[in-house]
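Posting this for the archive.
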Amino acid sequence: MQLLPAEEMAEIAAYVVRSEDARRELAEIQGDLAMYAHTVEMQSPSAEARDRLMKQVGREKKAIPIDRPVEAAAAASASASCGCE
């Protein structure tokens, strides 16, 4: 369902909220999928797949946490108050 366009996803989510049968069936499907996931043998990805993933991660924009400047200011303040500079 997550691969649907946002508008379709919203329509389906609203339908599931209104329909007890849909909720029951969705819960059953989710339970079946969870059980199925436990039957699959875990395998390590190939070296090529790992390389592709690492290259993709390297191309992604790096997010800078908003709280980073606060942490730096707190560290500077702590350093100054203990005479550690």
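The CA atoms of residues 28 and 34 lie 10 Å apart. The first helix runs from residue 6 to 18.
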